[in-house]
Write a structure and sequence with these properties.
Radius of gyration: 20 Å
Helix content: 55-70%
Number of domains: 2
Oligomer: single chain
Number of helices: 15
Largest sheet: none
Low-confidence stretches: none
Strand content: under 5%
């Protein structure tokens, strides 16, 4: 670990020990190697969170927003559009980043291929896509073979497909556009949630999370990722107040292991949601940090292994 990370790791380990002694036992990390592995995953997750936070403070090359460039990066492009006041485009690019994902081998190739139409014709920017969601779907389905050959979906979206039909990417993208435009756009959608919850960040997150069920094949993980990205990039003032463990896989297994001593413990997800929220508050880390750490930790609970997609 770096010096800063070492100091942070010691504080997190101390926090875990105190929580287990004074609040609730944590049988999954009673053994020192397991505790050390979880601490390292927490530090790794905090580092990723800091990366999002500092993106908007660093210079970003214009090529990052240009799908004709090999440097195209939808997250950095979102920051560029945010800085220029084009918030609708920023939200759209974050959706594309989450849906298509990033891989170690292909990077953002799929998002770039779709957004830039392979460098042929105008980009599928938000203004264009939002006025023709059916056309977007038809284009994706017509170019499914070429898109399939352009790269791979990210780890969280590895079961997605470009095939035509209600479960294909065309249908997913179309449903997202219709969901957003039915409220008048991204900014209006989040403004409505904030107004309904009196600007409570956690309640607003919950409202949008539930309503995002309207987006096809955007289950628990995709919705959580999308909303924590728009939060992390400071597009809106929302934050998760729980992990939404009902229907989760990796994070749920990690929570079971931590609080129940086994990935197959009998603790109900709703109880684990409450317990993980309590622990996150005690450790003073965001729910997205704990979610990411638990998911990766349960894959290798006694030895730290970096998992970066």
């Amino acid at each position: 670990m770096r010096p800063r990370d070492t100091q942070q790791g010691k504080a997190l380990e101390s926090g875990l020990v105190k929580y287990a002694a004074n609040v609730k036992p944590l049988p999954g990390i009673e053994e020192a190697p397991a505790r050390k592995a979880l601490v390292e995953q927490l530090v790794e997750s905090l580092r990723r969170t800091r990366f999002l936070a500092v993106l908007s403070t660093r210079p970003i090359a214009p090529e990052r927003a240009d799908p004709k460039s090999d440097l195209f990066d939808p997250l950095r492009a979102a920051v560029l559009h945010q800085k220029s006041g084009n918030y609708e485009e920023a939200f759209w690019l974050i959706f594309l980043a989450v849906h298509f994902g990033k891989t170690r081998r292909h990077g953002w190739a799929l998002a770039r291929a779709f957004y830039g139409r392979f460098g042929q014709g105008p980009t599928w920017n938000w203004q264009r896509a939002s006025h023709d969601p059916a056309g977007v779907r038809k284009w994706i389905e017509k170019n499914s073979k070429q898109l399939t050959g352009a790269g791979s979906f990210g780890n969280h979206r590895k079961y997605e497909t470009f095939k035509a039909g209600s479960n294909g990417t065309g249908a997913v993208v179309e449903s997202y556009i219709k969901w957003v435009t039915s409220t008048g756009g991204h900014s209006a959608l989040f403004a409505k949630a904030n107004a309904e919850t009196e600007n409570d960040p956690c309640r607003a997150f919950d409202v949008v999370y539930e309503r995002m069920a309207a987006v096809r094949r955007f289950g628990r993980t995709a919705r959580f990722d999308y909303l924590t990205y728009v939060s992390g990039l400071k597009l809106v003032n929302i934050e998760p107040g729980k992990l939404y463990l009902q229907g989760a896989t990796g994070p749920l297994r990690g929570a079971h292991l931590l609080f129940g001593g086994s990935v197959e413990s009998s603790i109900p997800p709703i109880t684990l949601d409450s317990q993980t929220a309590s622990l996150a508050s005690h450790l003073e880390v965001g729910m997205n940090v704990l979610e990411d750490a638990l998911c990766n930790w349960q894959k290798s609970p006694h030895t730290f292994m970096p998992f970066r997609g």
